[in-house]
Amino acid sequence: MQMxxxxxxxxxxxxxxxxxxxxxxxxxxxxxxxxEEGGLNMRRLADLHQAFMQKAWKRLxxxxxxxxxxxxxxxxxxxxxxxxxxHPSHSRVWKNLHKVRDEAESNIHWxxxxxxxxxxxxxxxxxxxxxxxxxxxxxxxRVNEVWLNGTWDEAALSNLISPDHLHRVKEVFIDQGKPxxxxxxxxxxxxxxxxxxxxxxxxxxxxxxxYSVIWHQNIPKKMSFVAWRLLNGWLPVDExxxxxxxVLASKCMCCAQMKxxxxxxxxxxxxxxxxxxxxxxxxxxxxxxxxxQQLLRIWSLSVNTVGHIKQVIPIVILWAxxxxxxxxxxxxxxxxxxxLRSRIISVKHKGPTLLCWEKPxxxxxxxxxxxxxxxxxxxxxxxLRNDQGELVVAMRLExxxxxxxxxxxxxxxxxxxxxxxxxYERMGIVIxxxxxxxxxxxxxx
Length: 445
Hints:
Pfam families: RVT_3, zf-RVT. This is Reverse transcriptase zinc-binding domain-containing protein. By secondary structure, the chain is an alpha+beta fold. Among the domains are: 76 residues, no CATH class; 137 residues, no CATH class; 76 residues, Nucleotidyltransferase, domain 5 (2-Layer Sandwich), CATH 3.30.420.10. The chain has a five-stranded mixed beta sheet, covered by helices on one side. Helix 3 crosses helix 4, helix 3 packs across helix 9 and helix 13 packs across helix 14. The longest helix has 18 residues. The radius of gyration is 33 Å and the shape is extended.
């Protein structure tokens, strides 16, 4: 089912508000593009629906399922699906399929087997459907009707098509021992691929090596996100905010000039000193560079090894400058070269931490407790397991409470009372409180 366009727009507006924290910087369609095309590698809902409907049309044309045979008999009858008009009384599902029909048909090619394809309407030769060359023909002839003894019947073909097309048809291979096979042109192997279909459906843009540079597997996404917003001019510095109608008295935190994106990140004295320092360390001359875009382009061209640490330095510098700018603006922390340099040098990539459930000692039990708090109500949960990790008992409850700490204490009290009431007294306790694990491991007898 296709949602109304207004619903798509409303959902995309919610996505946009969440991503940019309430302020609209661009249309959601600009975000929905691969990294190298200037997007965030997201997908538009309307394009996803389009790709799914093409998949549904492909299954309809294969006719292998009960549903597809029902749809073909109900809406097409003896006519080819390619030429059946849509009627106001038809179901919404069929109307939605009809909308993608032409685009989906352009992706379909039939590999001949038993020859049950339509001679005129189906695409079974390199020229595409013969109806494109003979518009007066409306189908009704199967390919195997112009075969004779396992090969093409030239006499029958000469009455239907021109000599030039006859020569092209004779080049098509026939394998009568197999059923006709539907091949999907958008996919390299001929099998339907949602990824390749979506790529064919979505709006294509020109890729840029500049955007490819900022998205590196060893760079945290939050750093790349700031660099992405910078390249698009979507960071809230005074110059940009004035263009959005929010005019403020503007003065740089380290000089008297107006805060522009280029000035904050590149041309102010401290940023210049910072870029010169790290550029000299990796053998790049930054004397004649005038903008961040130019600097990133020169920096990326100087890297000849994929994954080299030299590749990530500019993004880390931009991130450090932006954090220092925010601290100088909102917390009155001085914007200094030494502080920025030490922060950049100390940056380390932290990978995911694996947390494992540890078994208690033999014969003991282990109680895991957690709680949640919202709007004056707390939700509590506890799981008691034995030394083999097997579930002994699970508990949950909701009650009124005043603070998150009250919720955690109530969870501990309620779960302990329940365990003791059931006769379980020798246990270890693990409490999850906000982001920290507070372990209390005592055994009682």
